[in-house]
Specification:
Bound molecules: D-malate, zinc ion
Strand content: 15-25%
Number of strands: 16
Shape: globular
Distance between the termini: 37 Å
Structural class: alpha+beta
Strand order of the largest sheet: 13-10-12-11-15-16-14
Number of helices: 15
Helix content: 25-40%
Mean pLDDT: 96
Low-confidence stretches: none
Radius of gyration: 22 Å
Length: about 450
């Protein structure tokens, strides 16, 4: 008899402890299908107390734990991967932590459980006249807890900042089963270490987020969305600056290229977005009230490359334009298992990086689909072709980004995928400080081992 499983069943009830591989499959393979591994079990606690019980039991049995939200991560951070075969991890799914308090309209804040999806949170905020400042293509499945653990970015980052900027406080269970909770939402609160912010982007290595106090923004409905053809990324960078200068209230500026568009059109059966084809496309969304519409349209029409644009002012038209960008991920996945390399760099470096990228990809025999949140300097380099276990193209592209002063992870996090290359973006002193924090909070290393900080070679 597995004593740990008996303990866990005592905490959540046997129906929320999954051991049958038919039942655990959806929790042990990531969205890309590139990262997977066996789990000892999947446990689905429904309250902070149950999470604390689960972690305390796992700590007692020295069982590693992989915390998981909506399992939409792209760097293998939320599934078992290359774990010790004699001690496979427990997957802790936080999806049943669905507390969602009424919006506090006095402060413009809300408290949400880790298992609330981003779509549910955004709809909840919207009904109260507010907007949650993070949105991403996976919003139907991605959760509050998962997006906090990964500090998810998404399409509104240039407007509201990423997830980190929304988090006023966190409730989390630490590696010994203790609970830290700071959900009061007091903006003026200067009382020492911000433990909640320490959890943001920690990728489940320091604690399991169970709830958060989140900042909301006054609702700011999009007024117009435009899609413009461009000659390539250099022109896209120039054009986004011109658009930002021409009108206030830019919510998002996204970029994609002809090969990605072709995949999306084939996969989703969509018509061409513009009368002519272009090497690249820029999608921009602007907020404002109805009264601004004509003025903004006029200001944008004098922005030179916009003669090649399609503009939508109604919800259906805007959704139709967004589909060309947002359906990239699924269209690429339908072609095979991609290498998803999420990098960012100063806007001034993007054109040179893009030119050198083609040479790097050519050497690997793969084909690249490039798209992303260009307003934030963030491009997603997706490479199809090389085998999932072959890291050569990952290494080459991440090194190229670093050589241009960029980051090896713009918004997806480090996970298992990039742990060995963290040194490309962080100094030895920074990595040493991160290890010190990790060891202090999780001395037995049970929380998401191998994620973010690669296992150290024994000396
Ligand atoms: C996106 O921007 O669509 C997401 O980051 C997903 C992806 O990179 O595939
Ligand atoms: Zn993205």
């Amino acid at each position: 008899v597995d004593a740990l499983l008996a303990d866990l069943a005592g905490i959540t009830g046997g129906e929320h402890l999954l051991t049958d591989q038919d039942m655990t499959g959806g929790y042990t393979t990531d969205w890309t299908r590139r990262y997977r591994g066996p789990a000892r079990c999947v446990v689905r606690p429904a309250s902070t107390e149950e999470v604390a019980g689960v972690i305390e039991a796992c700590a007692r049995h020295k069982a590693p734990v992989v915390p998981q939200g909506g399992n939409t991560g792209l760097v293998g951070g939320g599934v078992p991967y290359r774990a010790r075969q004699d001690n496979p991890p427990v997957v802790l799914s936080a999806r049943r932590l669905t507390r969602l308090d009424p919006v506090d309209t006095l402060s413009g804040q809300v408290t949400a459980g880790a298992g609330v999806t981003i779509a549910e949170l955004r709809a909840h905020a919207s009904r109260a006249g507010f907007e949650y400042g993070v949105d991403l293509a996976s919003h139907q499945a991605a959760t509050v807890g998962g997006t906090i653990a990964t500090n998810a970015g998404g399409v509104l980052k240039m407007r509201y900042g990423g997830t980190r900027a929304q988090v006023l406080g966190v409730e989390a269970v630490l590696a010994d089963g203790s609970v830290i909770s700071h959900l009061g939402g007091i903006e003026a609160d200067n009382t020492g270490y911000d433990l909640g912010q320490l959890m943001v982007g920690s990728e489940g290595t320091l604690g399991v987020v169970t709830a958060a106090r989140l900042r909301l923004w006054p609702a700011e409905p999009p007024l117009l969305t435009l899609l413009a053809g461009v000659g390539g990324i250099e022109e896209a960078v120039t054009l986004q600056a011109a658009i930002r200068a021409a009108v206030p209230g830019i919510r998002a500026v996204e970029y994609f290229e002809a090969p990605g568009l072709a995949l999306v059109r084939r996969h989703a059966g969509l018509p061409a977005p513009l009368p002519e084809d272009y090497p690249g496309y820029l999608l921009a969304e602007v907020a404002g009230s109805e009264g601004n519409a004509e003025d903004y349209a006029e200001r944008l029409s004098v922005t030179p490359p916009l003669q090649k644009a399609s503009v939508a002012m109604d919800a259906a038209g805007r959704a139709a334009l967004w589909a060309y960008r947002e359906r990239h991920t699924e269209a690429i996945s339908a072609e095979g298992i991609p290498h998803k390399l999420d990098v960012a760099m100063p806007l001034s470096q993007l054109a040179q990086f893009r030119a050198e990228l083609d040479e790097v990809i050519a050497k690997t025999g793969g084909r690249a689909i490039v798209f992303g949140h260009i307003g934030a300097g963030n491009v997603h380099v997706n490479v199809l072709g090389p085998a999932p276990q072959d890291d050569a193209v990952d290494n080459a592209v991440l090194r190229l980004a670093a050589a241009h002063g960029g980051s090896i992870s713009a918004e997806h996090g480090i996970g298992h995928a990039k742990a060995a290359l963290l040194h490309l973006s962080r100094t030895p002193a920074e990595i040493a400080a991160m290890r010190t924090v990790k060891t202090a909070l999780d001395p037995d290393g049970i929380l998401n081992p191998g994620v973010l900080l690669a296992p150290q070679e024994s000396k």
